[in-house]
Amino acid sequence: MKKILVPTDFSKSAEYALKIAAQIAKKNNGEIVLIHMLELPTSANVGVSGSYEIPELMLFKNAAVSKIDNLMESPFLEGIKVSKLIQFEMAFDGILSSVKTHNVDLIVMGSHGASGFQEMFIGSNTEKVVRNSDVPVLVIKKEDDNFNANDFVFASDFSDNIREPFKKVVQFANEFDSRLHLVMINTPNSFKSTHVAQEIMDNFVAGFKINNFTTNIYNDVNVEKGILHFAKSIKADLIGMSTHGRKGLSNFFNGSISEDLVNHAKRAVITFKI
Fold it and tell me: Which domain holds residue 120?
């Protein structure tokens, strides 16, 4: 996790993400690429040709440069190599294209909206990036001056198609000295006996070198509640899961999660694309 991309819109939540990215960079001797996308409004300012006048474009860009330069002077970035990118592009497209051109290992993003898990992902740039990014995406919801991933929950069915993304899970856990809590959620609609579930997990982890881990089987009414209840029960610092491209998390986290569970969105979430 040497090269970290942090998208910023200069909001508080983006600053929280940058602070945590700085902690990760310091820990791993990494560097940060700070990116801001200028999404131009298609309003009355647009001329007949559908394009902006050059002076207007420069005004937008100069304002952004000034803001990003101020941000780069933040004391918490001292001693870290930080580069900046300002692009005229839709946020989602720009973030994903920058991952490839700059060989990024990890995206750290803030999340807007105080209304919890569903707001955190559905219909936002964050959700689009989570759904489509080929590199892990760490989503930050709150300020944390001492970010750690000591207790890291990874929920899965531990099927064969998880093996490839799981390499990155193991890499992350080992680099962060995490205790990786692997959990299979048993639900009434998808029930496995403890013996069968344990055998699946044991066979799955046999091919990986994980420094510190536990295997867990947790019964609940559905998968999402199971993950959040389990994470709460062990006071997890971080919840990890894999995403299925286009389908993303929108099917995974639905509006039925109770208010109490929604508060768990305050925990950081990291996603790994299958």
Answer: 3-140
